[in-house]
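User: Show me a protein chain along with its predicted structure.
Assistant: Here is one chain, sequence first, then structure tokens.
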Amino acid sequence: MTATPSALRREGTTPSGHAYVIRPSRDDDAPGLAALIDAVAREGELIAAVPGEPGTLEQSSRLVSIVLEGGLTLTLEVDGVPAGHVLVQRRAGSHYAHVGEVAILVSNPQRGGGLGRSLMEMAIAWGHAVGLAKLSLRVFPDNQRAIALYRSLGFRDEGLVRGEVRMPSGDKDMLLMGLSLSDRA
């Protein structure tokens, strides 16, 4: 079962009046997405990245491999500039292939306008359409804004992994969250 192309595209206007589109990522998105990751990493420890990583080549490689492995990667553009990204990476191996790992980021100027919710809703719909049984994600426990969004979409806390990510400030815990898709109609 596959998601229809129209399910992978959404267009509209942000609350501040700017045109946006959410669409499948392309290889030429890699430089803009690398810059987006860099910008979010510079804000502080909201994501498991530090400024300067990944580079364009690494980001391009990641976009291609996720799709080749049966995953999803969507880019949010606002006024033609990458302002958000969501990916669902399918786990490898027959015992794990029913689960997709979600990662999302939205630029600071675009947070709070519902675009992150749109990205997540599209990822959830895609996961359901392709027959995944579960989506999971990891988030820093102090990122309450993100956690509130995930909980509002039905994700549940599944545990805390201590010292999971090494950041400049030291090792940080990650909250594991999951969403059962088999319970959703």
